[in-house]
Write a structure and sequence with these properties.
Order of helices and strands: HHHHHHHHHHHH
Number of helices: 12
Strand content: under 5%
Number of strands: 0
Structural class: mainly alpha
Largest sheet: none
Low-confidence stretches: none
Shape: globular
Helix content: over 70%
Radius of gyration: 19 Å
Mean pLDDT: 81
Length: 297
């Protein structure tokens, strides 16, 4: 198996793990077993432990002192802001809403690339950015949830800011994967993230009543920590090492399909006309943004 094939398989598995994560994480929080900030701390602490244990097995390269600053900022956007707003937003909105909004990530990456990586702005990209933005606004403004206590507008805003933060993380980490093997820096990424998260999540973690967990809740919590955190953050840098950041962004289109089907099967969400319209706008926008212009003969 060549490196590109392995990277594509790894990237597909990342989307599957993320797609299932929407329903498992929301069920744990909606049943009040764990509050969002406490859940974030458990995710990061568990993944940090696993990555450092892995660090003892795999020999890592020496990191340049100046690159610790880059790793810290990657932790701010990829662990701190990203995870806090994702789980808080997911608590307030629905799995399908959250997964659809996350598909705006490739558009955000493209916009950031225009400003920071000197990407050219074409008419197709302008049109795509506009369509995706309209889809996000439609879903945020008109989207509804049947669950009492949800605040879809606020939840969708949190998820959208989370998508921006994740996009910044992808661009930062791409530079690191070009220089180091992921095993070298990812344990530091999570250690910095744990330090950032600790003040926010400590109080809610002490409120957890572990004895109240059913087998399903235990499975859900372990899936979020091991699968949707350790697994995705382990596989994503491996994929980025062999693929372009834009290719990684394109695979995010799979998330709403996987998340939506699983949420409907589990009874955690349902589809409606607003969600379908928003999906069409966002998918169309992302397609235009990532479409390569035809070369003139």
């Amino acid at each position: 198996m060549n490196s590109r094939t392995f990277a594509l398989i790894a990237l597909f598995m990342v989307q599957v793990l993320y797609g299932l994560n929407y329903t498992y994480a929301k069920n744990v929080m909606n049943e009040n077993f764990i509050k969002p900030f406490g859940f974030v701390l458990l995710r990061v602490a568990g993944a940090t432990l696993l990555f450092w244990l892995m660090g003892f097995v795999f020999k890592s390269e020496k990191i340049d002192r100046k690159d610790y600053v880059t790793i810290f900022f990657a932790a701010v956007f990829g662990v701190g802001i990203n995870m806090i707003l994702f789980l808080k937003g997911l608590e307030l909105t629905s799995p399908i809403h959250a997964s659809v909004i996350m598909t705006i990530t490739p558009v955000i990456i493209m916009v950031l690339s225009i400003f920071f990586l000197n990407e050219k702005l074409t008419k197709l990209k302008i049109g795509g950015i506009f369509l995706a933005f309209c889809g996000g606004v439609l879903l945020t403004a008109l989207g509804k949830s049947d669950r009492v206590g949800d605040n879809v507008l606020l939840g969708n805003i949190f998820i959208f800011i989370n998508a921006i933060s994740y996009s910044i993380y992808v661009i930062i980490i791409k530079k690191l994967t070009a220089k180091y093997h992921p095993f070298t820096f990812i344990k530091w990424l999570f250690l910095f993230g744990l330090i950032l998260i600790l003040p926010f999540g400590y109080g809610e973690t002490t409120e957890i009543v572990w004895s109240s967990f059913s087998p399903y809740i235990w499975f859900s919590v372990l899936f979020v920590i091991i699968g949707a955190t350790f697994g995705t953050y382990f596989l994503n840098p491996l994929a980025l090492k062999s693929l372009k950041a834009s290719t990684v962004g394109v695979f995010i289109y799979l998330q709403p399909v996987i998340a939506g089907l699983f949420a409907i099967i589990m009874g955690a969400d349902k589809i409606d006309s607003i969600k379908i319209m928003a999906m069409c706008l966002i998918f169309s926008g992302v397609y235009l943004v990532t479409k390569k212009p035809k070369k003139l003969i």
